[in-house]
Write a sequence for this structure.
C-alpha cells in the first residue's frame, strides 16, 4: 500500500465522477478448487498466461497474489506469494494481466526488501520511478563484450589467484561454516570506492543472519550502495523462488544504465530446494534427487543475466557471485555440478583449511577462474604467476616432507617459501585492502623477503609493513595505483622500501599472555562473523 | 490429454448417443452432493476396502432410477481406480454439456431484490448480447453491493456495482505496490 497523494486525488475523483455511468469493470475470474502448502488449483481463468500474477480474494476480503505456473486443460496451478491460510475453496481469483515486477532505481539502495520489492526495514516507502519485470531475458551475444575489468574483492587470495572480472559469474562453494558469506560481505565492503552497486539476495536464511549481514554492512558504511533482498526461511517458497530473479532485476537496472553492479545469491542450494518443493506440490515429475527436470534452466537463465555489456550497449556490467552449500565437501552432487558448469569458475572453500586457521579457507588447487588474468591489473598479473607456481611446488613437496627424511637445501627453501606464501594469503575478516597494497605484500613474499620471518609472525610483519609503506613510501603505492604496472622503476622502489623496512623489523614482542589474548580475540571475531555460535572457542 | 477430460469426453459421447445428457448431469450432481454430505458414502466410494463386486452392486442400488450412463460411468470409474477424480470429471462434463446446449449460466447479483419484470428485461438484454445462447439466470441478493449489479458468466465478471466502483476508486487513489 502506498500513501495518498493529495494532488492526485482531485483528478482521480473528477475522472470517476465524469464517467460514472460507464465505469463497469470487466474481469476474468475463476474459483479456487483446492488450496494448501502455498499451492492453489483454480478452475476457470482459461485465458490466464504463464507467469501472470493472479489475485486471490480471501475470506477476510484481502487480496493475496499468486503466480500461474501450471496451465492445464481445465485448471490453473498457482503458487501463492503470501498468506494462503484464509483462501478457501470457491474463493474468487482474478487475472491482473501483469507480470511479477519490482521497483528499481537509485532509491532502493540502502534498503532491505522482500522478493516483490516491499520494504522490510521500516524505513518507509521505496522511492522509485521504474518497475522492472523479475524475469528478464539475458542480453544476447551482440550486446556483450568479454570481461576485462577487475572487480577487486580486497582479499589477497582471491584477487591474486582467482581474479573476478566485472560481468563474470564466480561460484563460491563450500561446506557450512567455511566462510562463504564472509567472502561476499568483504567483497561488498571493498566496493566502497569503486562505485559498484551491490545486491545481496538472502534465500532461505535465518532472519537473524540477515540482520547480522545488514549490521556488518552498516558498520562498514557499505549499506548505502547495497540492497538486501531477503526471502528468509519464514517466508513462502514462492518468495524464496522469486528472490534471486528480483535481485538480478535490481542489478540489471544499473547494468542497463551503464553502471557496474554486483549481485550475490546466498545461496542457490536453498533456492533449488524451494523450487523443488513447489514443483513437487504442483505435481510436476521429479527427476534426480527429486529436483524437477528444469532445475538446470532455473539457474542457467538466472546466471546468464550477469553480463558485461558492449560499449554500444552502454558498457555496464552485472557480476554474479552465487553461493552453493555442499554437504561434507561433496561437489559432485546435483546442484553443485550444475552451477559449477554454468559459472565462469569457482572459489572452493575447505573446512579442513578453515579449521586449521587458514582463513579465508580457499583451496587454491580446486579453485579456478575461467576469465583468468584478463580480470587483473598488470602488476598483479606479474606477481600472481610466480605465486601460483611456488604454491603448486610447495603443495607437491609438502606431502613428501611428511615422511620426515632428510631434505636438501633447495627443498627446504621451497617449503619455507611455501609456508610464508600460505601465511601471506591469510586475511582476517573485514580487513580488505586495495590492490596496490596487496601487490606490495605478495611481491615481498614471493621475492623471498619474508624468508627470515617466522610464519607465525607473517601477519604482524604484513600489518607493520603496510603501515610503514603508507607512512613513509606513499609514493610507491601512488605510482602502483596509477600505472597499475610493476615497471622496473616501481619494482626498484618497492624492493628498496622492503629492504629498508626489513632492516628495522622486529616482531612485536608480546608476552605469552598477550599472545593468547590476541588469538582468542581473532578467533571469536572470525567465528561470530560466519556463524555467530562461536564454535571454536 | 489428461485422464479427467478423457473420461469426461467418453461420458459425454455415451450420454449423447443415449440422449440423456442433461439427466446424466443432474444425476451426477446429485451423486456428488450426496458424497459431499455423507461421510459413510465417501468411505465406501473412495475407499479400497470393499470388494469390487460388492462395490458394483452397491452402486447399482445407489443409482437406482438414474440414467444408465450414470450407473455405468460410476462403475467404470471405480473399476479403473479413478474414483478420486469424480468431481473433476463431472465439472468437465458439465462444461461440455453446457457448451453443447449453447447454454450460458449467468449469475446476477444485485443489492436489492429485482421484480419479475426487471428480471425479464435483463434476460432479454443478455440474450441479445450473448447471441444464440440460451441464458439461464440465477439471481442473488447482496446488500453490500450498495447499488448496481454484478454479472458473472463463464469466467467473466462484469462489475457494475457501486461497491466495485468504490473499490476501483480506492485502488487508483492508493498507488498500489508492485503486486
Amino acid at each position: 500500500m502506498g500513501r495518498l497523494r493529495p494532488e492526485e486525488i482531485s483528478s482521480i475523483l473528477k475522472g470517476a465522477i465524469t464517467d460514472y455511468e460507464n465505469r463497469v469493470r470487466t474481469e476474468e475470474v475463476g474459483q479456487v478448487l483446492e488450496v494448501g502448502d502455498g499451492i492453489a488449483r483454480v478452475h476457470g481463468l482459461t485465458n490466464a498466461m504463464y507467469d501472470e500474477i493472479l489475485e486471490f480474494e480471501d475470506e477476510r476480503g484481502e487480496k493475496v497474489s499468486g503466480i500461474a505456473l501450471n496451465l492445464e486443460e481445465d485448471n490453473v496451478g498457482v503458487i501463492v506469494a503470501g498468506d494462503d491460510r484464509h483462501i478457501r475453496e470457491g474463493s474468487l481469483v482474478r487475472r491482473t494481466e501483469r507480470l511479477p515486477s519490482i521497483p528499481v532505481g537509485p532509491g532502493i539502495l540502502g534498503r532491505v526488501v522482500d522478493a516483490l520489492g516491499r520494504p522490510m526495514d521500516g524505513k518507509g516507502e521505496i522511492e522509485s520511478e521504474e518497475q522492472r519485470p523479475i524475469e528478464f531475458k539475458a542480453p544476447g551475444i551482440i550486446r556483450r563484450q568479454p570481461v576485462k575489468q577487475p572487480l577487486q574483492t580486497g582479499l589477497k587470495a582471491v584477487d591474486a589467484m582467482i581474479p573476478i572480472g566485472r560481468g563474470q559469474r564466480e561460484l563460491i562453494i563450500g561446506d557450512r561454516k567455511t566462510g562463504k558469506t564472509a567472502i561476499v560481505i568483504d567483497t561488498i565492503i571493498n566496493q566502497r570506492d569503486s562505485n559498484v552497486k551491490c545486491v545481496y539476495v538472502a534465500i532461505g536464511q535465518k532472519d537473524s543472519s540477515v540482520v547480522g549481514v545488514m549490521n556488518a554492512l552498516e558498520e562498514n558504511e557499505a549499506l548505502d550502495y547495497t540492497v538486501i533482498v531477503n526471502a528468509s526461511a519464514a517466508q513462502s517458497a514462492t518468495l524464496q523462488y522469486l528472490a534471486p530473479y528480483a535481485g538480478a532485476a535490481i542489478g540489471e537496472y544499473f547494468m542497463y544504465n551503464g553502471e557496474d553492479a554486483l549481485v550475490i545469491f546466498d545461496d542457490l542450494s536453498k533456492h533449488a530446494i524451494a523450487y523443488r518443493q513447489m514443483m513437487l506440490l504442483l505435481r510436476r515429475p521429479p527427476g534426480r534427487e527429486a529436483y524437477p527436470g528444469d532445475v538446470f534452466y532455473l539457474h542457467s537463465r538466472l546466471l546468464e543475466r550477469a553480463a558485461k555489456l558492449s560499449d554500444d550497449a552502454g558498457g555496464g556490467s552485472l557480476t554474479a557471485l552465487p553461493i552453493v552449500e555442499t554437504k561434507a565437501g561433496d561437489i559432485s552432487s546435483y546442484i553443485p555440478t550444475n552451477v559449477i558448469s554454468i559459472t565462469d569458475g569457482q572459489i572452493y572453500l575447505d573446512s579442513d583449511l578453515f579449521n586449521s586457521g587458514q582463513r579465508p579457507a580457499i583451496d587454491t588447487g580446486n579453485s579456478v577462474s575461467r576469465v583468468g588474468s584478463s580480470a587483473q591489473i598488470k602488476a598483479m598479473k606479474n606477481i600472481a604467476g610466480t605465486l601460483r607456481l611456488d604454491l603448486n611446488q610447495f603443495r607437491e613437496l609438502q606431502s613428501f616432507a611428511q615422511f620426515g627424511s632428510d631434505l636438501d637445501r633447495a627443498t627446504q627453501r621451497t617449503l619455507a617459501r611455501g609456508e610464508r606464501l600460505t601465511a601471506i594469503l591469510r586475511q582476517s575478516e573485514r580487513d580488505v585492502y586495495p590492490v596496490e597494497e596487496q601487490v606490495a605484500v605478495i611481491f615481498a613474499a614471493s621475492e623471498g623477503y619474508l624468508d627470515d620471518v617466522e610464519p607465525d609472525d607473517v601477519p604482524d610483519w604484513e600489518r607493520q609493513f603496510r603501515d610503514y609503506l603508507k607512512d613513509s613510501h606513499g609514493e610507491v603505492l601512488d605510482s602502483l595505483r596509477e600505472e597499475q604496472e610493476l615497471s622496473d622503476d616501481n619494482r626498484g622502489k618497492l624492493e628498496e622500501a622492503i629492504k629498508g623496512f626489513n632492516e628495522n623489523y622486529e616482531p612485536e614482542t608480546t608476552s605469552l599472555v598477550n599472545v593468547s589474548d590476541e588469538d582468542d580475540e581473532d578467533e571469536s571475531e572470525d567465528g561470530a562473523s560466519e556463524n555467530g555460535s562461536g564454535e571454536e572457542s | 490429454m489428461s485422464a479427467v477430460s478423457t473420461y469426461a469426453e467418453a461420458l459425454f459421447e455415451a450420454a449423447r448417443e443415449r440422449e440423456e445428457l442433461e439427466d446424466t448431469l443432474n444425476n451426477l450432481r446429485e451423486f456428488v452432493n450426496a458424497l459431499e454430505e455423507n461421510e459413510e458414502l465417501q468411505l465406501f466410494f473412495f475407499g479400497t476396502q470393499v470388494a469390487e463386486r460388492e462395490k458394483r452392486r452397491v452402486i447399482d442400488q445407489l443409482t437406482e432410477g438414474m440414467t444408465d450412463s450414470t450407473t455405468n460411468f460410476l462403475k467404470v470409474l471405480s473399476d479403473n481406480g479413478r474414483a478420486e477424480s469424480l468431481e473433476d470429471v463431472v465439472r468437465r462434463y458439465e462444461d461440455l454439456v453446457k457448451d453443447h446446449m449453447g447454454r450460458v449460466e449467468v449469475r446476477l447479483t444485485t443489492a436489492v431484490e429485482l421484480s419479475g419484470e426487471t428480471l425479464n428485461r435483463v434476460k432479454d438484454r443478455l440474450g441479445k448480447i450473448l447471441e444464440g445462447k440460451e441464458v439461464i439466470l440465477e439471481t442473488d441478493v447482496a446488500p453490500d453491493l450498495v447499488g448496481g449489479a454484478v454479472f458473472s458468466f463463464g469466467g467473466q465478471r462484469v462489475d457494475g456495482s457501486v461497491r466495485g466502483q468504490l473499490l476501483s476508486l480506492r485502488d487508483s487513489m492508493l498507488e498500489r505496490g508492485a503486486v
